[in-house]
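# step 3/5: fold
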Amino acid sequence: MLKDIDLNDPTTKALYDTYPEDRKDEFEDAYAYLKHVSLGIGTIKSLVMPDVPMSDRIKKSIKDASPELIDKFTQYTDKYKKGFAGGRETSFYNAKIIDLKEAIKFVTLDVDVDLEVPTTVIPFKLAREIVLDDNPTIAIGKCGCRNAMPEDEVKCMPYPYEACMFIGDPAASFIAEHGDMFRKIDSEEAVRILEDFHERGFTHQAYFKTDCNGFYAICNCCSCCCPSVNRINMVLDGAMPFTNVVGSGLVAVIGDECIGCGECVEQCKYHAINLNEDEDRSEIIFERCMGCGVCVAQCPTEVITMRAEPSKGGVLDLDELRKTAHA
């Protein structure tokens, strides 16, 4: 067991108790990740993408970290790479894009939720559980992906990059107490933050991991810092066969009132909108649309809407999933 683990600490013990005896190794993975999330992401990035520049801040953190902790994250990186290589059957660290409406449902729950998301919604074999109490604990804090980027390349927000939102105990209380620059917030502030991120053009991604017992966070992602956005584009471009992030199950629809200003074209992270200059209007590239809803907020004439598209998978709608689970 990691030397700094103190099971006399209430939030650490609460996290520990959620893992049965045959999964205590996953407790250690979760403990290290939640307590040192920026260091963990930075270490993984340094091992998976050694030629990609990183911030002086994270390079110092890696240099100053204990050999035991670096060894833990190195082992975790090996596990992650093996899971990723096996695609949807073995990937254990996955995400689903959600639009603003669905993101808000996670932070405003007024009932307990305990369900397994069907593969029609999250098409991965592992880590599809959602277990949340009503009025769940919420913690917001430093984004590890942005923190790992060279400081002059982070264009989307100032340090300390408060963009990662952990939802539900024991993880949220643990990271608020022990994590790197995280704090608890209430549901009203969480909604305001999500709405602000939506207006700023960030995409909401619900994250699931086996060592975090399924769903644990909503990350609010940009194109200048977030590897998940880049990986999606590589898959869409045919440069990668697989990534561990899937679309929302929605697709954008541009109304006839479009004036062809091109704002949505510039703001789409997935290059899923073209400007038809002959018809003076924007057009959705159906195959590339991930259903994030960013274009809805960026359209100055408010003519873009979202619709469900079954061929792109189901929507991660907590209300509908609860109805199905209790039917």
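# step 4/5: annotate
The first helix runs from residue 10 to 17.
# step 5/5: archive (pending)
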